[in-house]
């Protein structure tokens, strides 16, 4: 009976709208459920009843469509809206919001994995990271990089996370002491600092008893039991030769003894640290400093003699040799003055020179008149820049107020004579070796610069330019001997200066990065964007204690809701892959935050009203069909 079909059709509508209303009610009920994903209902019509089939067109008639009457409606599917909900901040470090695709992985009581967007985590008394009692899963197995940092093996299997202990790291709740092994000194040193007054070379700073250091930083080192010791790192600018500047470093401590406790580092002209340097220097053959006016002779046989000065300023020895190198007599002196009676007869009298150092002075005697063949240049008067190594002679002619200075150099094959490009009457001069005194190019490079000597006379100074190669350690391994009552091993510390630079600033600034620490217990935790859990301990150290994994699916809408805000896999959800947050198509994690439900109340109320009207309409069809049936029954008798 056709009217009865209308009744069953309307009933199917009532049932379908009831299901839609059930879904809407569930959405509204979960409007405050963390990470909840709203659902919607899709309908489909039921197979229609065919009253007459469709016919094809003929030569005299057209085609006709089939006559069909629908038999009602059914629920085709319920779809889950997987869009990300709003994020709300939280004061709990265990609250984590996902800002994109992916699901937290938890282990159920049966040992199976389930999945959730609920990031409201907590830590139980055993240290398990849980969500509503289910243990959160991720990675705990790790490797260490060259700097000792933990890298979790995220390609391995996931497992429940315990932030207090695990089979890989052991006890993570109490951090055991770690002895210091390295200290990196960083920052910059002022290139404007003055060199040390007592320095006599790149690696000879002299007396360090009362050094006024240019830079200082404090480092704290730890022994294997966690005892800490304060060590001061002091720096003093030592010397400058050419484009190389050296600095003296010294370690000082009231608590421990250190060996070696000092050394030198070097910087180039750009302020970068170097591990070696080749320095050109000039060695003057005659450095005794005597002038013709400082030596007189009495009864001495005419000829050539050499005066050699040896010893120190407190006790110089003055020895006279003949031209064959035979000693003819000597005397001692504290300032270079004195008399020497010669074994061959006669006497030399020496007046204290203005500047005296150990070395030799060649003199000639003719009728007791002494001539020094030395223009009195000393080592400190000669500077060299990129000049070729070898022997040089500086010849000074003329008289006071009108001296002319020339330079001669021989490479063993050719002899070159150079005129000064900048000369003064006091003996100072500069020689450019690229052009000789005739203006001809020599093919040589470099310059020789002479400063005015203390006493200048006509004569010749011979000197040799040679190179000295210095090696510098950018790192130095020191042994720190702990106090005997500490009962611990000595500390071997690698001191690293490789990142230091020099700058043209008025002051220096140093800092350090020294490893090692004493024992500690957790003071706070945090979770990074990639799910790494960090613990900050009471000793100031921060270490990772695990990494939370995310699961991604080929078809996340195919997941099956299993209660407790959990999802389980289904035949429709596709492959599951465990990834690090922010990779593999997943979103990142936001700590101290929660993802809210994505239920839109306005849409739910609108859908509810539509379902209500549809329900009312279907019930109206039933009442109408009922009246029609009643009318039909009333026609009988």
Automatic annotation (TrEMBL):
InterPro entries: Falgellar_hook_FlgE_sf, Flag_bb_rod_N, Flagellar_basal_body_rod_CS, Flagellar_FlgE/F/G, Flg_bb/hook_C_dom, FlgE/F/G-like, FlgE_D2, FlgK. PROSITE patterns: FLAGELLA_BB_ROD. Keywords: Bacterial flagellum, Cell projection, Cilium, Flagellum. GO terms for cellular component: bacterial-type flagellum basal body; bacterial-type flagellum hook; cytosol. Residues 97-138 form the Flagellar hook protein FlgE/F/G-like D1 domain. It comes from the Bacteria. Transmembrane segments: none annotated. Residues 210-280 form the Flagellar hook protein FlgE D2 domain. GO terms for molecular function: structural molecule activity. Residues 7-37 form the Flagellar basal body rod protein N-terminal domain. Signal peptide: none annotated. One of its GO terms (biological process) is bacterial-type flagellum-dependent swarming motility. It is found in: Bacterial flagellum basal body. Residues 592-635 form the Flagellar basal-body/hook protein C-terminal domain. Belongs to the flagella basal body rod proteins family. A flexible structure which links the flagellar filament to the drive apparatus in the basal body. PANTHER family: FLAGELLAR HOOK PROTEIN FLGE, FLAGELLAR PROTEIN. This is Flagellar hook protein FlgE. It comes from Sporomusa ovata.
């Amino acid at each position: 009976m056709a009217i009865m079909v209308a009744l069953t059709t309307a009933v199917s509508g009532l049932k379908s709208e009831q299901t839609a209303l059930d879904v809407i009610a569930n959405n509204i009920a979960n409007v405050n459920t963390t990470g909840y994903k709203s659902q919607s209902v899709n309908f489909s019509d039921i197979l229609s009843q065919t009253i007459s089939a469709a016919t094809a067109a003929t030569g005299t008639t057209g085609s006709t469509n089939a006559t069909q009457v629908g038999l009602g409606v059914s629920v085709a599917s319920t779809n889950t809206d997987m869009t990300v909900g709003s994020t709300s901040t939280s004061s709990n470090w265990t609250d984590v919001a996902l800002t994109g695709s992916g699901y937290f992985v938890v282990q159920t009581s049966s040992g199976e994995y389930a999945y959730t967007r609920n990031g409201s985590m907590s830590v139980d008394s055993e240290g398990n990271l849980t969500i509503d009692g289910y243990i959160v899963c991720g990675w705990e197995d790790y490797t260490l990089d060259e700097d000792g940092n933990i890298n979790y093996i995220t390609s391995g299997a996931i497992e429940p996370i315990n932030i207090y202990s695990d089979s890989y790291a052991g006890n993570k709740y109490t951090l055991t002491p770690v002895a210091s092994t390295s200290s990196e000194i960083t920052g910059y040193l002022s290139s404007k600092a003055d060199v040390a007054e007592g320095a006599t070379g790149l690696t000879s700073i002299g007396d360090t008893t009362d050094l006024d250091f240019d830079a200082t930083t404090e480092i704290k080192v730890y022994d294997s039991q966690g005892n800490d010791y304060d060590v001061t790192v002091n720096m003093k600018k030592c010397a400058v030769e050419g484009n190389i500047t050296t600095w003296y470093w010294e370690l000082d401590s009231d608590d421990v003894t250190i060996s070696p406790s000092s050394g030198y580092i070097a910087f180039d002209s750009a302020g970068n640290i170097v591990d070696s340097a080749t320095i050109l220097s000039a060695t003057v053959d005659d450095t005794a400093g005597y002038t013709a006016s400082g030596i007189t002779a009495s009864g001495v046989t005419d000829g050539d003699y050499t005066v050699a000065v040896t010893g120190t300023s407190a006790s110089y020895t003055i020895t006279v040799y003949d031209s064959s190198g035979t000693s003819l007599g000597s005397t001692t002196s504290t300032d270079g003055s004195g008399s020497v009676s010669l074994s061959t007869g006669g006497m030399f009298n020496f007046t204290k020179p203005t500047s005296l150092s150990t070395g030799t002075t060649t003199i000639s005697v003719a009728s007791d008149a002494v001539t020094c063949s030395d223009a009195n240049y000393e080592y400190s008067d000669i500077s060299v820049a990129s000049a070729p190594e070898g022997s040089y002679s500086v010849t000074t002619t003329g008289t006071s107020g009108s001296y002319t200075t020339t330079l001669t150099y021989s490479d063993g094959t050719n002899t070159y004579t150079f005129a000064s490009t900048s000369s003064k009457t006091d003996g100072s001069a500069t020689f450019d070796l690229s052009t000789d005194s005739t203006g001809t190019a020599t093919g040589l490079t470099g310059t020789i610069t002479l400063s005015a000597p203390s006493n200048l006379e006509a004569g010749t100074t011979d000197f040799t330019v040679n190179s000295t190669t210095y090696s510098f350690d950018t790192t130095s391994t020191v042994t720190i001997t702990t106090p005997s009552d500490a009962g611990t091993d000595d500390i071997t510390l690698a001191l690293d200066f490789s990142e230091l630079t020099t700058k043209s600033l008025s002051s220096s600034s140093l800092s350090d990065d020294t490893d090692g620490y004493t024992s500690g217990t957790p003071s706070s935790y945090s979770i990074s964007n990639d799910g790494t859990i960090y613990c900050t301990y009471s000793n100031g150290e921060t270490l990772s204690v695990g990494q939370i994994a995310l699961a991604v699916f080929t078809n996340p809408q195919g997941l099956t809701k299993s209660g407790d805000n959990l999802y389980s896999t289904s035949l429709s959800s596709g492959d599951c892959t465990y990834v690090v947050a922010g990779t593999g198509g997943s979103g990142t994690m936001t700590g101290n935050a929660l993802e809210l439900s994505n239920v839109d109340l306005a849409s739910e109320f609108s859908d509810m009203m539509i379902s209500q009207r549809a329900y009312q309409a279907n019930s109206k069809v039933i009442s109408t069909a009922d009246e029609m049936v009643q009318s039909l029954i009333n026609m009988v008798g």
